[in-house]
Amino acid sequence: MERIYEFEKNAYRNKVVLINYLLIGILCYAIYRIVFMPEYAVLWTLAIGVCVYALVNSYLRKANPRIIKVTDEEIVFSSFGEKRFEIAKLTKFRVKVSTPNYQVLLRVADSEGRHGSFWVVYSLFSDKMDLLGEFDYLERKIHPESLRFRGRDKLGVSRPAKD
Q: Full-prediction pTM beyond 0.85?
């Protein structure tokens, strides 16, 4: 069974793509300020560090997925490229829910040494409750002893039913 969850197109453009363009602009301006106007160089160096960190998260680590595809065999996170994890080889799948922002931090690792951290703003994804159900199912499958499941007997026991 294959499920595809997509970030709302306009929201992704505003929350990820445009922010990255803004960060690139700030990075260029900060470099310009350090080279040609060295006063406040420490402040501009800090700005460069923040911009580089955020851009590395977006473009290299692919931490803000636009599409999440879950099948019986693998989970794929797509954003400026893809990161694929075979479910049978997963050694770590931790879900940390942040309710005020409707975000989930996923920490994923497999036996082949691949790993990733992904911020998923599930309130802006298609079928958001099914997406959370998929995450609960995968976490229970990999970490059945997790504290998140104590007292929650039905949480993550099975994959969400396909409509």
A: yes
